């Protein structure tokens, strides 16, 4: 494997990690707001904050890892995306900042106010919607370069069916991932009341996820024929994804093995995400940036990979410890510690 | 408005805001760790309570540090796309390492904060503070190597279209790195020590006597003293580095126009029409000493620097203010220690405490002055000798609008952060908390 391929694989892996952990967090925001509106907040909010409080900063680092990494391996992304995305990028930063800081303020500072709950819920949907736009842009056609000037065609972006289908897919996926995780977590905590509620959420959001995935796929066919064809070549990967979706939904439906159900959801997204990513290659921004022509120098690329491997030796044991203490420690989950 | 100017202003605002919380993020864990260690060793609940309360406040400041840090990280690409396209090839390595330091810090911070009473052996809990201390310190080290690289770029060769060879390790270990890293770390620790001392002294002023705050004051004052001396030593080394590698920065800060031997140090004052310093304090030969450790050595003057490569002269005030505060941060704890060691005198005298209260805010100002001096002193370069600031900035016309958005964001974060911190400690006074947690403490002893 060349260092370009290793680089993009590593980045994609971390982006996938971010999608999973951040979805849990974003979705939880929406669910707590929704629960409050329907006067059910006393049932699940304790559960949500027990899981989220110790890990929110870790979630954020996944994101930082991705954007530092992509500029590191492919510095031209900074130039194209950086120039084109000043406004939407800044808005995404502001949303993230509001969400992150208010989260900490509220959980340590005082009781939860209505404004806060609204922001927490709303940003939970708006952030995935705005971040997913970066993937839409990567398909090409929205960012154009003429004589070294980078421009972004907002009108085209806002009127493109593909763009909206991606936003829709991002939102429902977030809710599905989050609901299945919370179902698993509630079952571990033996919290039957919360379990009943979040299981209902999980069942509800399953079907829209698949519908959105199919819609997006069709819309992509209209937008980028090349990518669409490459995805068809990889049909079996998406088939696996579909299979794991069925398993997860089935397990939740019969009300057993919630842990396995969540792992199936992770695999469902793993295959979909990697199928999408692999068929996207070699482009990072169609047609301007490819992983081969726009990668950093070899010496830097190799240094980054070495640091990455060394970093994993530090991270993996630490992450396992974190999960042992907060996710797989039955007493903690049950609120006894 | 001009995107270059607005990009500069937005970067300046974000960095000046982030650096407050970054400094706290580097320093506070060290003091939490020290307090918990002493508390466990001496079996003294006062120190354990110190660690707990500092940690609780820290959660709020970390949150702001993390979100503003994320903002800068992205803004680097959004505001300086041309710079990142070029320099990204080199500085991505330390930035990437910094992310691992964050990861490490974030994981153990989560563990530390949520496992206070979970282990029988308290030392296990204390041990979890170490990765947080190290992670915070290392992120400062790595980001400082990036800044050092911008001042004295090294570790690459250039050809027709950009870089020909790159050695990212050599780039990290550029000539500016050793002194910068040393000075940034020492100044972060002294600042946090001084701020914690400010809080203790302020409480003592309001509540006359409390054993808890007296212990906190003693601990933080001793730390301020030690780290202030280290900061001054590091600052002196930085000046010697500048004299050798980046003479225009030192010369502009010192209003040193002609290259000469036995150069005088000029403190404060202002410039008249002929660019002659007026109303300044002149310390004969001291600039030569600061620059080379020898009162008669030669110091490069601004005349040797092409006119369009000279930094602005107002950084003189930034430098002088930083150094004056640096001196004060040595003298205040020294006075406190003398009062403490002399039996007849009272180190908790009203005026002593008032001086200490000033120390924390001054130290934080000094951090800001120091960075403004260092960054403005690099002008007009973003990458000294290779790329100018105006070549690096975005061409997007909307930076001014973004500036307003971010201004509102930071203002909100600052306001809400302060309100939350006040509530957190007001509604939960230390006396009450000590009694609840450690009922064995004698009444009135808290
Ligand atoms: C509490 C904060 C603080 C204090 C008391 C001092 N400094 Fe400082 N100084 C910093 C905080 C700082 C800083 C924020 O850490 C800077 C900004 C950039 C850097 O590398 O460190 C800095 C930069 C900086 C530079 C520029 C380095 C460069 O650009 O490479 C010099 C020459 C000095 N300092 C010298 C001093 C001296 C002689 C001091 C005398 C006591 C002093 N500083 C006190
Ligand atoms: C990759 C790293 C960095 C980049 C790209 C960068 C870039 C810049 C730029 C372009 C400016 C505007 C200068 C001007 O035109 O006035 C600036 C200013 C500034 N930077 Fe840096 N910088 C970096 C690292 C740092 C670090 C680590 C700090 C520490 C907090 C820092 C602190 C500042 C400050 C305080 C200013 C304001 C100075 C002023 O008043 O102009 N910078 N930086
Ligand atoms: C160009 C300059 C800088 C950039 C791009 C930057 C980037 C970041 C980012 C992305 C984060 C959030 C990490 C997370 O998600 O946990 C962060 C936080 C932090 N930064 Fe900065 N940073 C800069 C300057 C500095 C400087 C100069 C220091 C230290 C002297 C510093 C120390 C820290 C620390 C300790 C944190 C952790 C949060 C906290 O404990 O408050 N940063 N920074």
- The N- to C-terminal Cα distance of chain B equals 58 Å
Measured as a percent range, the helix fraction of chain B is: over 70%
Whole-angstrom Rg of chain B: 23 Å
Question: What is the strand arrangement across the widest sheet of chain B?
Answer: 1-2
Mean pLDDT of chain B: 83
Average pLDDT metric of chain A: 79
Largest sheet of chain A: 2 strands, antiparallel
What structural category do the secondary elements of chain B indicate? mainly alpha
What is the H/E string of chain B? HHHHHEEHHHHEEEEEHEHHEEHHH
What is the quaternary state of this protein? heterodimer
| Cα separation of the termini of chain A | 47 Å
Bound molecules: CIS-heme D hydroxychlorin gamma-spirolactone, protoporphyrin IX containing FE
The total count of helices of chain B amounts to 15
Q: Give me the count of strands of chain A.
A: 4
């Amino acid at each position: 494997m060349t260092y370009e391929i290793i680089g993009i694989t590593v980045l994609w892996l971390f982006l996938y990690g971010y999608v999973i952990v951040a979805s849990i967090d974003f979705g939880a925001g929406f669910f707590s707001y929704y629960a409050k509106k329907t006067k059910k907040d006393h049932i699940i909010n304790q559960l949500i904050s027990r899981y989220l409080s110790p890990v929110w900063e870790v979630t954020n680092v996944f994101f930082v890892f991705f954007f530092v990494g992509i500029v590191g391996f492919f510095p031209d992304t900074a130039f194209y995306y950086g120039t084109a995305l000043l406004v939407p990028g800044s808005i995404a930063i502001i949303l993230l900042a509001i969400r992150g800081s208010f989260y900490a303020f509220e959980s340590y500072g005082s009781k939860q106010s209505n404004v806060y709950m609204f922001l927490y819920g709303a940003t939970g949907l708006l952030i995935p919607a705005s971040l997913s736009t970066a993937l839409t842009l990567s398909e090409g056609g929205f960012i154009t370069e003429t004589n070294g000037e980078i421009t972004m065609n907002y009108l085209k972006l806002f009127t493109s069916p593909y763009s909206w289908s991606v936003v829709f897919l991002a939102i429902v996926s977030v809710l599905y991932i989050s609901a299945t995780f919370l179902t698993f977590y509630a079952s571990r905590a033996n919290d039957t009341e919360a379990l009943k509620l979040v299981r209902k959420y999980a069942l509800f959001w399953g079907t829209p996820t698949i519908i959105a995935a199919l819609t997006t796929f069709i819309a992509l066919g209209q937008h980028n024929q090349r990518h669409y064809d490459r995805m068809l070549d990889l049909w079996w990967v998406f088939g696996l994804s579909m299979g794991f979706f069925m398993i997860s939904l089935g397990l939740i439906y019969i009300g057993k093995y919630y842990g396995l159900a969540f792992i199936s959801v992770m695999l469902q997204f793993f295959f979909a995400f990697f199928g999408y990513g692999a068929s996207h290659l070699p482009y990072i921004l169609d047609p301007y940036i490819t992983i081969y022509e726009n990668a950093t120098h070899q010496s830097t690329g190799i240094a980054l990979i070495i640091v990455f491997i060394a970093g994993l030796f530090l991270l993996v044991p630490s992450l396992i410890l974190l999960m042992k203490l907060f996710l797989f420690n039955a007493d903690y989950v049950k609120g006894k510690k | 408005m001009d995107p270059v100017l607005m990009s500069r202003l937005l970067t300046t605002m974000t960095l000046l805001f982030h650096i407050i919380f970054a400094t706290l993020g580097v320093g506070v864990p060290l003091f939490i760790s020290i307090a918990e260690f002493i508390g466990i060793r001496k079996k003294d609940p006062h120190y354990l309570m110190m660690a707990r309360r500092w940690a609780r406040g820290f959660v709020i400041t970390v949150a702001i540090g993390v979100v503003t840090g994320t903002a800068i990280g992205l803004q680097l690409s959004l505001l300086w796309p041309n710079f990142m396209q070029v320099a990204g090839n080199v500085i991505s390595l330390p930035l990437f390492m910094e992310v691992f330091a964050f990861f490490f810090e974030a994981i153990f911070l989560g563990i530390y904060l949520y496992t206070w009473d979970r282990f029988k052996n308290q030392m296990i809990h204390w041990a979890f503070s170490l990765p947080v201390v190290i992670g915070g310190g290392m992120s400062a080290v790595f980001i400082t190597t990036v800044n050092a690289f911008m001042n004295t770029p090294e570790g690459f060769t250039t050809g027709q279209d950009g870089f020909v060879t790159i050695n990212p390790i050599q780039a990290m270990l550029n000539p500016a790195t050793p002194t910068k890293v040393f000075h940034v770390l020492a100044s972060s620790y002294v600042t946090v020590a001084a701020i914690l001392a400010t809080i203790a002294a302020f409480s003592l002023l309001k509540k006359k006597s409390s054993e808890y705050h007296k212990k906190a004051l003693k601990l933080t004052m001793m730390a301020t003293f030690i780290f202030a001396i280290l900061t001054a030593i590091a600052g002196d080394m930085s000046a010697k580095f500048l004299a050798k590698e980046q003479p225009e920065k030192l010369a502009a800060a010192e209003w040193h126009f002609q290259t000469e031997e036995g150069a005088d140090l000029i403190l404060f004052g202002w410039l008249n029409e002929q660019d002659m310093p007026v109303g300044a304090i002149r310390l004969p030969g001291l600039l030569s000493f600061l620059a080379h450790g020898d009162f008669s050595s030669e110091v490069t003057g601004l005349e040797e620097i092409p006119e369009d490569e000279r930094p602005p002269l107002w950084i003189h005030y930034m430098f002088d203010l930083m150094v004056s505060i640096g001196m004060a941060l040595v003298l205040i704890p020294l006075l406190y220690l003398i009062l403490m060691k002399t039996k007849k005198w009272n180190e908790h005298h009203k005026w002593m405490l008032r001086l200490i209260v000033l120390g924390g805010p001054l130290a934080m100002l000094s951090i800001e002055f120091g960075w403004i001096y260092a960054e403005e002193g690099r002008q007009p370069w973003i990458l000294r000798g290779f790329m100018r600031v105006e070549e690096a900035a975005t061409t997007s016309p909307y930076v001014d609008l973004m500036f307003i958005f971010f201004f509102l964001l930071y203002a909100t974060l600052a306001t809400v952060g302060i309100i939350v911190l006040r509530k957190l400690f007001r509604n939960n006074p230390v006396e009450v908390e000590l009694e609840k947690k450690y009922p064995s403490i004698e009444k009135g002893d808290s």
